[in-house]
Fold this sequence. Notes:
The chain is mainly alpha-helical. The chain is 70% helix and 4% strand.
Amino acid sequence: MVGTGIDAVYLILLFVPAIAGMLLGLVKASGRIPVALCAVSCVIGMLCYPYHVYSPDLAYEIPVGSYLGSYAVSFDQLGSFFISISSTVFLMIVIHMSHSGHGYTPGYSGMCSALFLSVTLCMCAETAILLLMAWEAVSMVTFLMARAGMDEGARWRFLAVTHIGGLVLMAVYGYMWVVSGSGHLGDWDGLGTVLGQGTSMALALLLFIGFGTKLGTVPFHAWMPDMYAASPTHTTALLTTVCSNAAVLMLFRAVYSYIGADGLTDIGMVVCLLSAVTALWGAMESMVQTEPKRILAYSSMENMALVTMCLSMGLIFWNSSSSLTALVTLAGLLHALNHSVFKSLMLLAVDSVEDVTGERKIDRMGGLARVLPALSAVALVGVASLAAIPPMNGFISEWLMLQSLIGTNAISSDLRVAMPLLIAMMGVCGMIVATSYARLFGFMFLGRPRSQGAADPRPLRKGSISPMVILALLCIGMGMLSYPIMNVVSEGACLTAGIDASYRDGMSGSLEPLTLGIMILGTVAVVYAASRLLSRREEETDTWGCGGTLDERMQYSSEGFSQPIVRVFHPFYGDTSSIENGRYLTRFQEPFVKYIYNPLGTAIYRVSRQITRVQTGNIQSYLGYILVTLVVALMAVRLI
């Protein structure tokens, strides 16, 4: 129950505006009221962690229950911090959405409120029935918000794959519910001692698979590129940030708190290998895509694979080193939060670029840094964070990952062989994605305009730059002030899963992010000031074009930029090349779609066509089916 009247007021302010916004979204004449109510809940959600510090025992059980159990929420330190960061990102996306000029209907705004309500309940649910209902609502709401009138197949693939994962999670949570005899998640702590090692391993693997369908783990990632490209950008931004945060938090709690990490080393190795393959594939595919949102789709796949890799390595380290376990799980949780900030920034920047230029491919953009310097600056911060360049927040969490891998040299001879391979994998991924993000920024903002829309872009919509500036400042601030954030997350993980909070003992060296950030930013400022003071009068002349006239076609194309990596990994990409209208074009088809999903879909279609033959429409046939079923059932009962 709620401890004080102030607690009750806080919960009302957190949930009631979102509920009202969801209901008002059904009224066409509600205008901007639903999005305003959603923003109110987001602001209150931002205060979740500060309020947890004030009232650490905040919990509430709804007096009206159901046949399957009661509905209750509770806010621990880790969940409260996740809610605060996710609410901040959610608010920035909502503000940008309200100024984007895309003409979102009240229904869409109402679904935003429903999504905020769902993901927040996922992160604070105390009962299994509320958790499963909220998670199912996340899938359904994002499916409805993804409707854009372009590629309907993309969102249906998303619904099919994520619902398979949802069914897996229902089975796992349902089994733990039956074994524990309680629907309250707080009663599930240490359930692995009751389940046994074999069952615990099976449930942990199913949890990684169930949540992996939404996080983009190979081979369940097939929906991501098309979904990102075809859906409204704000839907994509919410899906890849706040929804991913909820999935990571739920996965961490289920594996480390409910089941327990003891004895799951083998599962950790399996998931670690699968995550490494996913990260590599996401990095490689991001390098060859030509649409910004497809590039960011594979980027999300790669980043979420790093998160699951960290959580799986925590299982491997559990019986060897508590400090390394704390360090690597901290890296995974922190990277999920950092990813939500810099990925939302980049998606909003891409949406703004597509809005002002009317173009959707990077080969049709370029030259925007000169006419849109503010947008170019915030996008540069986002790209630097994506590429893990210090002192941005993306660098800190990936640096912690490398620290945990380096520390394995002292704990196990078996890991001394495997972990250098993971370090090499991270290095290869880092190089590929850094090149991919440099390519993304370069083709969008540098060079000559490659189309009329890029040459003469529309002005940015009023107010749309503000949320991106805030997110860019968060990328810098969360990097430079990372130690306080790391302490909060580590302490929250310790309270949630019993992990030793002394994560610094696992580091092989020390680093002061604030000092490093000041040094780097100070150096950049000094170099810039010196270049301005020492610069001579500039004189503009035409670039020498080998006797010809330069135009946009004489620049590096995206196909040409990615050809070296395509040539090296040609068998994996399955690319086809052609010349159309005097241009050399390369097309790619996902091998997982070509060799797994397409044959599977064809087989299901053929079976369904065979099954339709029994639907004759004849009442006598149906009565015959009933008679046969009844006879078989009676014989089965007789034999039993």
